[in-house]
């Protein structure tokens, strides 16, 4: 998968993140991409990109974050375990810090009960 960070939540940011995800791994033919109904995800540009990749778009009900509970939970972990522990001086410092948390710690070292006590990187390797 992929992640990105921007100063604002824009269509370009979500398109860039989707393109990064596509380039990072093979994906099956029948992909259903789930999101909330934010304007970035409902934009014509984003819908055209999903169509280009042959993906079906699924939406959460408006104002109902429980449909996307796993991602909401992940954001909670990121904020509680890392982001709220620091006062960032600028965007670049925040980006580098969050990059370290996701790439060097969360995906590589933090084991997950739901993944059989493997890290996400280990789980991806054994599941391939």
Automatic annotation (TrEMBL):
Concerning SUPFAM superfamilies, the annotation shows: Ribonuclease H-like
Which biological process terms from the Gene Ontology are attached to this UniProt entry? DNA integration
Matching entries from Pfam families are given as: rve, rve_2
Give an example GO molecular function: nucleic acid binding
Which InterPro entries does the annotation name? Integrase_cat-core, RNaseH-like_sf, RNaseH_sf, Transposase_IS3/IS150/IS904
Output the PROSITE patterns linked to this UniProt entry: INTEGRASE
- Residues forming the Integrase catalytic domain are 1-128
Q: Which domain of life, per UniProt? A: Bacteria
What is the name attached to this protein's record? Transposase
Q: What is the lineage of its organism?
A: Bacteria, Bacillati, Bacillota, Bacilli, Lactobacillales
